[in-house]
Amino acid sequence: MSWVWTVGLHGTACPSPGGNHHAQSREMQDPLLAGEFPKDRPSPACTVPLPVLLWGWCLPYHCETLDAVRQAGALSSTGGGRQGCLYPAGPSGCGWHESVARLACSLARWHGPSAISGDRSPFLSPAGQWCYDSQDPQCGPSHWKELKATCGGDKQSPVNIDRRRLQRDGGLGDILFEGYDQAPPGKWRLTNNGHTVMLSLASESASEHITISGGGLPGRYRAIQLHFHWGSPARNGSEHTLDGRQLPMEMHIVHMNVKYQTLAEAKGHPNGLAVLGFFFQVSETTNTNYNTIVAGLRNVSHAGDSVDLASTFRLSTLLPRAGRLSGYYRYQGSLTTPDCSEAVVWTVFEEPVEIGQEQLKAFVSTLHFPLEGSMLLKMINNFRPPQPLRRRKIFASRGATARGGSLHGGHHQLLSPLLLLALLSLFLPAP
Hints:
Layout: E1 4-7, E2 46-49, H1 59-72, H2 96-111, H3 144-147, E3 160-161, E4 167-168, E5 175-178, E6 188-192, E7 197-201, E8 211-214, E9 221-230, E10 241-242, E11 245-246, E12 249-257, H4 263-266, E13 273-283, H5 291-296, E14 306-308, E15 328-333, E16 344-349, E17 353-356, H6 357-366, E18 395-396, H7 410-413, H8 415-427
Parallel strand pairs: 3-10, 4-18, 13-16, 13-17
Antiparallel strand pairs: 1-2, 5-8, 6-7, 6-14, 7-9, 8-9, 9-12, 10-11, 12-13, 15-16, 15-18
């Protein structure tokens, strides 16, 4: 006789992890947009033969469901369960079925990445998928190329911006920001996608008029979303570094070339995406323009959580003032998370955004990575370290400031001392 467990929430299909808000929206179908909620969910119920529970084909969904229920605080399928239980709850806890199932998932995770993962959901345990070192060094950035070969390419991001080795490009003038100074129709949606917190517009059409062009960009690009990378109480967490120095936090505003219809198509071209990077520095005063986002963080504490913000705002309010946007650095690179597509025209701005200490602390202390077994880890140090520049060059815009001499290259830096020696020779007595 075969033992079978049939698992379901409220008598329906096994849930999508963290999918209690907008799991079927367009934004939830792509990792760049919100974390890629896969469509291959077991339905209408997840039936797990007990003899193959540890290594069976349904185990990934089974463990995923357990984690999702714990994160969402859902009720058991019988309706009489305790909050956070998948199976009928006893008087003192979730019951022995729950304990056995969780033990099975923990053992599978301990045995190895392939035991439960494959390549299904970013809300699954980090084991077998990409993560940050603060979650598990075994799936951190140094191992991404083992999962996605493109992460080991020659044009990877982020990079260190060494201002002594930049090349000035006179064609890099002011970028034209369209729609940034208008409050868009609809609401901003804040999402914890398991790797970062992301801000997007609930309606796709609402973002079509938020675009960038000019400034040497190879086309016109419309905004898709923005997200953040930060450190921990003990260290800074920007992805790009400036003269080898890491700053407290970094914001990326992701744009897609309007000539492409889908993100997948855009990622197949070197000019497919344009990302604007902004450093943050800590200020003694609060940046009130970030109050709405910071206040919303408590509503997206767990992976998969999503909330529509109560008030809308102009995207330009999140940036440095307009007069300081002419100084930036440009290079060809990649996405900073798998699949690390080398399809990004990067623009990293020189002027940082100021943010209050308590506001930065909210990012570090409020958000969590996906549940790993019984461990709920704070979302900290969610950055990829700088990647080799190799043969690429980083260009400085017309408005960027110099540091350590000329921006044009090493041979020009020799000119001043040679000229000085020539001038001195005019005043020295002849031998």
